[in-house]
Amino acid sequence: MGRPRADLAALVLAAGAGTRLRPLTERRPKPLCPVGNLALLDLALARVFDALDRPADEPDARWVAVNLCHGRARLAAHLDGSPFATPVRRSHEEVALGTAGALGPLRDWLDGRGLLIVNGDTWCPASLAGLVEDWDGETLTVAVSGPPPLHSRSGIVASIMPWSLARSIEPRPAGLWERLWRDALAAGRLRSIGIDGPFVDCGTPAQYLRANREALALTGGGALVDPTAVIGPHAVLDGAVIGAGARVDGVVRHAVVWPGATVGEGEVLVDAVRTDDGITVACSA
């Protein structure tokens, strides 16, 4: 990229309850569910820091914010231990404000800047640098997975909200589609662009497993194993993603083993997620 933009900040949305992803989200907040052995939240933060051309170790929270509500204590603890802890502003919501309402508490912080918005519960490794570089500073812009235009069922890769619109949003529950996008699209005031490459909204266990499979496919390997995991001599790994500190002595095929989880000798885990508390979640389509 060229010089960092001074007229743009970023928000990673991480306040949702993740009800469709239960029972996984009964064990950890949705943005902390790992894809390719990295938390969805960390993947989103890395993308926005890269797009804004800002280092993740800047000494203040001027550029990137995360909103927190459901699971806020665990999310905050995760941020405390992540490389993004120092420069991230944390916007605490007593009630989840939705994708639009989340902007309300951040108006003073934005202070005239536009806002790059990324969902913390989707997996999409595509760079956002081009989207940021091409933004004209004024137009409401939405990047969708695949060809445009935006519609109500589009996969949303990211969006950019100009200050002229962001300053008018109140901190009350509302969604971006209902609050702004639908009417702006109909009036021709919204620019939608397509982003090529893999994209998964990790809304259900089946979609979450698919995201891990696609992340594994990007590595070109038959398994993705954290260096701290212990793999027994008789273990079989085929299309497996094995997290930090996990122990596998059985068979894992097209499945995810969370950090700290175990798969015992004689066990066969297929098309499923094994959590760190020993629960197996089937992920059939």
What is the alpha-carbon Rg in Å? 19 Å
Average predicted confidence as pLDDT? 90
Superfamily at the CATH H level of the largest domain?
Answer: Spore Coat Polysaccharide Biosynthesis Protein SpsA, Chain A
Name of the CATH architecture of the largest domain: Alpha-Beta Complex
State the secondary-structure class: alpha/beta
Low-pLDDT sequence parts: none
Q: Kindly report the CATH topology of the largest domain.
A: Spore Coat Polysaccharide Biosynthesis Protein SpsA, Chain A
Summarize the structure.
The chain is 23% helix and 28% strand. The chain is α/β, with parallel strands linked by helices and 285 residues long.
Task: Give a description of the structure.
The chain is an alpha/beta fold. The chain has two domains: 8-199, Spore Coat Polysaccharide Biosynthesis Protein SpsA, Chain A (Alpha-Beta Complex), CATH 3.90.550.10; 221-282. It has eight helices and 20 strands. It has helices spanning 40-52, 72-80, 98-101, 107-110, 129-134, 163-166, 176-186, 205-219, and strands spanning 8-13, 34-35, 38-39, 64-68, 88-92, 114-119, 122-123, 140-145, 156-161, 190-195, 200-201, 223-225, 230-231, 236-242, 247-248, 251-257, 262-263, 268-270, 272-274, 280-282. A seven-stranded mixed β-sheet has the order 5-4-1-6-9-8-10. The radius of gyration is 19 Å and the shape is elongated. The protein starts with 7 loop residues before the first strand and ends with a strand.
